[in-house]
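Morning F.,

Quick status update on the modeling queue. The single chain you submitted on Monday has been processed. Sequence for confirmation:
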Amino acid sequence: MWFSRKQAAAPGAGLAPSSKRVGDAAEDRALAHLQGRGLVLVQRNFRTPGRGGGEVDLIMREPDGTLVFVEVRQRASARQGGAGASITAQKQRRIVFAARHFLLRLGSEPPCRFDVVLIQGGTPGADRPAEAASIEWIRAAFDASAPS
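C-alpha cells below.
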C-alpha cells in the first residue's frame, strides 16, 4: 500500500516515526535526565517571533538560581560526527538570540549558561528496533559570545 504526502499512514503501519515525534521524545528524555539531577523546568520550546529567529528546547533553573538554556540533539549513530556535530556556529547564534529575547522579559538577569544534552542512539528505523540510547549532558557547552 502506498501513501501520498497528504495521507496519513495507519498507526503501527511499520513506518519510521516522524522527526517531530523523535525530537519530542529526545526532549522528554533530556528533561527527565536534568530533572533527575535537580534542575527545574521553566519553559519548553521557547521561540522568538518571526522568521530567522531562534528556539531554545528547554529552559531550566539550577537550585542555585542559574538559568540554563538547553539544546537537545539526538542522532541514531555517531556517523558524520554524531549529535554534537550538528550544533553549528549558526545554531549557537540562534540559541543565544532566543535566550536574549527570553531574558528581556525578566526584570533582572540571573546568572545564565548554555548547556547541551546529546542523545546517541535510541531512534528506531523502519527496518530496525530502537537501540539503547546514551545521554551526555555538557554544561557550559558554549557561551553568549558564540562564534559569528
